[in-house]
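Q: Entry one of two.
A:
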Amino acid sequence: MNKNKILGIMTMLCVIIVSAVPAFAASSSSTQTAQVTVSDTIAIAGTWAGGGNNSTINLGSLPADGLQATFNGGASGEQIFTYSNVAIDVYTKASGDFAGGIPADTITINNFLWSNGTSTPAAFTTGYTGAKVLNNIAKAPKSGSTAYPVNLYLTVPVGTNSGSYSTTVYFSAVKTGAAAPTTP
């Protein structure tokens, strides 16, 4: 074969090989968009006297004197913390009458009241309807929470048997303007 033909074939092979291999530069970059959708988050916690989330509300020892005892909300009483990323309404209810005593007795639920500090005290009920404790409270700050005090009041009627009594208090939050919760 002649030298020129060999040189031509080799040149042609080099062109084909170089065309098939991608070019690499001294630097390279790639760009991608990252996206996330953040959903509404409604989260609250109740604390009593600086205790942990959902701590027991301990109203202490009260006489059966028919007088209303007041338990101011805040760091030394009841507080509701919001961790929500939307404005919320908070409702409350109780499971029923305080039950206990020796012999067995009750303190009716209408003797147990709540207020948010600016509202007139209202009796606990067994449903959330009409029991809006906090209205249109702002979303929580980033990486934090906001506390709201709730005042409690209890009257132990004259003649109530001595002993320990209890009921369960519920706080439930919904997005501001939504219907009152039905559970828990």
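Q: Entry two of two.
A:
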Amino acid sequence: MTKPGVSSFSIRRVAIVLLVPVAVVVAVVWHYDVLGISASRPPANSLMIISPYRYAGTWVFDDPRAGLVREPFVRGVPEMIDVLVADIPDAKDGLFSANPFPGYQKKLTWLRGDMQGNYYRLDDPPMEGWICPALFKYYEEAPQELYVRAEPQS
């Protein structure tokens, strides 16, 4: 016959012995993002920089941090970029943010979502363009406004 309290002590001891290594493993997996499940998007108030370039007849950009290579701009956005860089013949970098920033040139206003992408409107000149799902590499949800600026090569 076992003494009272001995079995509960053993179960508690086994639970503690098992729980400590499990907690350590979970902490390491979380800290080093081993499963790739942490939020990899920049903060919504960040100023992002991309370097669009012409490829195969349209504007594209690369962003290794977001896993994007030759990501094309389509459906009206290349024409918006043409307007943005019209006075900058050696444009290299594009800046964008969901918040106004000093020196932004144009504001795009969200119109509607469609086929996993989002339509935005440029007021001056009046244009509409579709931004593909790559937008969600930068934002958890489509911002109501995007502020943009093109910069020359330095």
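A: Comment on entry two: The mean pLDDT is 81. The chain is about 20% helix and 35% strand.
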